[in-house]
Amino acid sequence: MSQIPNSLHGQDIANILHPYTNAVRHQEVGPIVIERGEGIRVYDDTGKDYIEAMAGLWSVAVGFSEPRLVEAATRQLNALPYYHTFTHKSNEPSIRLAERLVAMSPARLSKVFFTNSGSEANDTVVKLLWYYNNAMGRPERKKIISRRRAYHGITVASGSLTGLPVNQQDFDLPIAGVRHLTCPHFYREGREGETEEAFAKRLADEFEALVLAEGPETIAGFIGEPLMAAGGVVPPPATYWQKMQAVCRKYGIMLVADEVITGFGRLGRTFGSDYYGIDPDIMVVSKQLTSSYQPLAAVLISDELFEGVAANSARIGMFGHGFTTSGHPVATAVALANLDIIEERGLVANAAAMGEILQKGLASYADHPLVGEVRGAGLIGAIELVSDKAGKTPFDPVGKAGRYLFERGHEHGLIIRAIGDTIAFCPPLIITQSDVADMLARFGRALDDTATYLRAGA
């Protein structure tokens, strides 16, 4: 990555510890300084344009220059720039947004708790499950089951639910009471001769066996992304969610759908739960809720969970959990405007239509010698690079090819995500057919550069 010869470059190196970054390497190469956005593109401080093929961080639905969201924030800042929702206080945007989320979400969900991020939301889920089971006289029912390669956040509790080593190594995670199942990645975890449905049955059997080994009376919840994203873009195998949900219902385990990335149209349906036929007891949303113009997340819960929590709050005297900016009026006002735009412009339908084009375009690279698997659904997709197609052999070290392709993407005006040697795509929902073609063409040039680099024996 080329260095940026200006004062901001040096200031950034001196003062900022960047998330998800090799801090030592950052001291050497510095940042790309992004100055403005327009539609699906962003521009750095030299004027160079990039197609933002990751929608920022899987999160910008309406693009990087939507004036209606700026106007909604400005109106609310002028009227009520901040107020809290503690001790019987509220504000109109948070009331209206909660009502709207309940109306559009799966039927089981009836109440909303607001946080600032998906990490805080999943942290809240853990606390709600513990609190609820204590209230119901089941203090032993506290364990939560997640999956390897899952991503549910980076706080102490949500980082424990996450199943990625980089988020746990040397942070002393996971905490006690969290268990992880096999990642539902058929390409990597399926056995020779096994069908997707047989693979799904094996994973559900593994889930049930773990429940029985731990004791069903000790398991509070099972959490999963409808489609895994940050773990490498992993769509579940056929019938997976039906089988996993059946185990939850059999043993009274609450099912948590982490829709932080899949919510609000990413898969061409309003929620990933709609796409895969999931009926959750708890659903977590964020990112595309405001197109990340404001930090906001929400936990939607069932009546059953709410009633237990509410009764316990009366017994104790209050529900002792919340954040200074829970239900922030500016963030919730922006979310309402964002949801209006998604609905008015038919962006869920656009995601379905453009998603078909994206998936076909990605599949056109399947025969490339570096490509092991192409996968995805809707407007989220991935290409996994391998050193040997027949053997599905990863590069040594893992990430060598992905990192190079990621950096070549910048040279060709494309921002993608390298997850090891898997290249992820998750463009804004406003993307057009010509945009998809341009994005894939830029990727193709970066992929060819990578092939040349690797053939040279790098």
Automatic annotation (TrEMBL):
InterPro entries: Aminotrans_3 (IPR005814), Aminotrans_3_PPA_site (IPR049704), PyrdxlP-dep_Trfase (IPR015424), PyrdxlP-dep_Trfase_major (IPR015421), PyrdxlP-dep_Trfase_small (IPR015422). Its cofactor is pyridoxal 5'-phosphate. Signal peptide: none annotated. One of its GO terms (biological process) is biotin biosynthetic process. One of its GO terms (molecular function) is adenosylmethionine-8-amino-7-oxononanoate transaminase activity. SUPFAM superfamilies: PLP-dependent transferases (SSF53383). Keywords: Aminotransferase, Pyridoxal phosphate, Transferase. Pfam families: Aminotran_3. Belongs to the class-III pyridoxal-phosphate-dependent aminotransferase family. This is Aspartate aminotransferase family protein. It comes from Aureimonas fodinaquatilis.
